Amino acid sequence: MCLAIPYRIIELLDDNRAFASTGNVKAEVRTDLVKDLEVGDPVLVHAGFVIEKIDQDYSEELEGLWANIRELAGEDQ
């Protein structure tokens, strides 16, 4: 089973790299697999790679669910 985590692009570094965030976590991610990303885009990240750009409604639902998971795990948001 694979787990993709919802992130938002916060900074584009070059054609193949960006910074993205989810909750308190900020990470450098690879963008080789998805083109035409912009700052603010909601994406799914697996193993350090953006694997899909998702629409805003779906993103809000996933971010809410992920926030619930972090809360249940006792992580500060």
What do you see in this structure?
It is globular, with a radius of gyration of 12 Å. It contains one helix and five strands, in the order E-E-E-E-E-H. The protein has a single domain, classed as Roll (SH3 type barrels), CATH 2.30.30.140. By secondary structure, the protein is α+β, with helices and mostly antiparallel strands.
Question: Secondary-structure map with pairings?
Answer:
Layout: E1 5-14, E2 17-22, E3 25-30, E4 42-46, E5 49-53, H1 56-72
Shape: globular
Count of alpha/pi helices: 1
The portion of residues forming beta strands comes to: 35-45%
Give me the strand/helix succession.
EEEEEH
CATH topology description: SH3 type barrels
Protein structure class:
alpha+beta
- The helical percent reads 10-25%
Overall pLDDT level: 90
| Biggest sheet architecture | 5 strands, antiparallel
CATH class: Mainly Beta
Number of strands: 5
Widest sheet, order of strands: 3-2-1-4-5
CATH architecture: Roll
Give the termini separation: 26 Å
Observed structural traits:
77 residues, alpha+beta, SH3 type barrels, 1 helix, 22% helix, 42% strand, globular
Quick summary of this structure?
Helix content is 22%, strand content 42%. It contains one helix and five strands; from the N terminus they run E-E-E-E-E-H.
